[in-house]
User: What shape does this take?
Amino acid sequence: MRVLGLDIGSRSVDAVWLDDSRIVDWAVADSGFDPGSAAAAFVDRCAHDVIVSTGYGRHAAKERFGGTAVTEITAYGTGAAVLFPEAASVLDIGGQDTKVITLGHGGRVTDFEMNDKCAAGTGKFLEVMARALGYSLEEMAECALEAEAGIAISSMCTVFAESEVTGLVHRGEDRARIARGLHDSIAKRTLGSLKRVNAQGPLVFAGGVAKNPAMVALITEGFAGEVRVPDEAEIVGAYGAALSAAVE
Amino acid sequence: MSDQSVDYHPMWAELGLDLPSHDALLGAVGQLFGDAYLTQENRPKGMDYLNFVLSEVHGLRIKELDDFRKAGGKVFGTFCLYVPEEIIRAAGGWCVGLCAGAEFAYDQVEQIMPRNTCALIKSFMGFKLAKVCPYIESADLVIGETTCDGKKKAYELLGEIHNTWVMELPQMKRPQDLEMWKGEIRELVKKAEEITGNTITAESLRASIKEVNDKRRALQRIAAACKADPAPISGKDRLLATQVAFYDDVPRFTQMMNALADELDQRVAAGEGVAHKGAKRVLVTGTPMALPNWKLHDIIEKAGAVVVAEEMCTGSRYYQDLVDENAATLDEMIDDIAEKYLDINCACFTPNKGRIDDVVRMAKEYGADGVIDYSLQFCGLYEMESNGVESAVREAGLPVLKVTTDYSMEDVGQLATRVEAFLEML
Ligand code: SF4
Ligand code: SF4
Assistant: This one.
C-alpha cells in the first residue's frame, strides 16, 4: 500500500511517501500564504492509495484531498517511536509551537503538553531574533554555540524580546552572546516543559528547530537522559502520519 | 431566537433592556445554538422541548416571569448551587439562575473589575452593565454568596446597581460550620418571607422539597441512562437540560425531563445511541458551564467522542443529592436542607476531597475512557485543585487532560487539537 503523509504546518508543508511502511520519497515546501496549494502539488506528484494529514491544516486537507487526519501529537509520537523504538519521549519544536510527548509501551502516547498559544521559543521566534541580530539562522546558531556565555534575555514574548535584543545591540553588546542568551532561554523553557510531563530519556528531538545545532547542544546538556536527533528532523510528523495509516 | 409571531420588544423595553445590544446578543446565541446543537444527528425527540425552551429563552419564559410578577409574585436570582431553591419556592417565590456563559461588554466590565477576573463573573457583570439580561432585570432580589473572592467582591459592585443580598457560606465542613450554615439558611427564610410577604410553613416547605427533589430525580434518570454504551443522548444535550433546569418552570420541566428519560431508557433497551457503540467516552469535571457556554462539549463531541457525565455545578453536583423527605417539623426540614447543601463539593471549600472521590467514582460508573478537567482561566480555586484531581485520576488508571480556557472563541483551534490528541491517546 502506498501512503502519502502530509504535515501541514504554519511554516512548512512536509510530505512523506511510504510503500509498505518504507520511505520511498519525501519533500518539504514553504507554507507561504497558501499551504493548500503546496500540499496539492505533493498530492499530484506521485501515485498513492491513502492520504493521512496532520498539522494545523489537517482538517482542511482531509476535506480537500480525502483520507484521514491525525493530530501532530499522534503523528510525532508514532514517527519518533518507529525511528527510535527505545524512545521514551519526544520533543518537537516547530515553526509556531512546541510539543512534548511521553511514550509508553509500543510507542503509545501517554501524555503530552503543547505550547501553542504564542510563538515564544519556536522556529518563528528564532527567525525574528536572527533578523534583529542581522544574522542568518545558521550564523546565529553557530555564533551562539561559540559564545562563552550568554547575556540573559528577560522576555520570551517574540515582540518584547525583539525590542530587548535591538536595545542590547544598540548598547554595543556582543551579538554572539545575545544569540547565546536567546538559545539559553528557549532551552530553559523547553526543559521546564519536559520536566512538567516527567519526560524520561531517550528523548527524540524533532521538528525544524532540531536542525539548529545550538539548540540540540543545549537540550542535550540540560536533559537528564539521552537525546537523539533524527537525520530528517522536519519530516517526522509527515512520516508518523503516514505510518498511522498502516496502524489502522 | 424567539417565536416570529410575537414581538417581545415592548416587554424587553419595559424591563429596561438595551434593545440593540440585546438583539445582538440573542442573534449570537442563536447562531451558537445552531452550530453546536442543530447540527447534531440522531437526537432524542424529547430534546424538542429543550430546543423550544431555548428558542424562547428571552421570550416566553420572560413573559411567564412578567405575568407572575404582575400578579404579585417575586423572582429571586441566584448564582450558585448553595442557595436553596426549596426555601424560595416555599415562600411562593421563583428562582432563576443568573450565571452567564458568553463574553459580553467586557470593555464596560473592565472599567470596574480587573481584567484577570474569571469569565463567569465578567460575563454576568457584562450582562448587567449592558442591560441585556431579562432574567436579572426580572429579579426582585439577587442572592449572592461568599464563595470565591471574585464573586464576593463582584456582589459589592452589583449591590450598587441592583437589589442584592449575600449569604455567608462557610469554607469548611466541620460541625460548627454546619451550625453556622443552618443559621444562614434561617436568615434566608426570613429574607424570602420579607420579600414575598408570605410565611413559610411546614406544608409549603415539604411541598417544595418534594418538587425540587423530583426535578433532581428526573435529571438523575437522564444521567444514569448515559452509563450505557452507546450513550443514548449527547453530552451537549444533557448539559443543556441541566442548564435549563436553573430557570425553567419546575413542575413542567420535571415532567418533560421524565418523558425524555423514558425515551432514553427505551433507546438504551434498543441499543440506540448518539454515537456508535465503542465511541470514546469522556467525563468532564471542573468549573460550571453556564448557558450558552457549550464550547468544550462541542469540541469533544465534534471530534467524535461522547461526554458521558459532568462532575460540575451544571452536572452531577446539581442533582446527585436529595433533601431528606421525612422530616416532621419545619425546623427539621430547614436543618435537612442545610445538610444537603453543605454536602455539595465546591473548590471553595477546604479540604474538598469529596469532589475528587466523586470524579474517580463517576469515571468508573460511567465507563469513561478519560477525564477532562476544565477550569475557567483566573479561577484560582479550580486551577489549584486541578493538581489533586489529576493525580487521583491517574492513580485510578485513567488519562487526564487539563484545560484552562474562557468564553472567547480565539483558542478553539488549539483546544480542538489538544482534545483530538487526547482522544487519539485513549
Ligand atoms: S462552582 Fe462553587 S461557587 Fe461556583 S456555582 Fe458551583 S458551588 Fe457555587
Ligand atoms: S469559576 Fe472560580 S473564580 Fe469564577 S466564579 Fe466560580 S469559583 Fe469564582
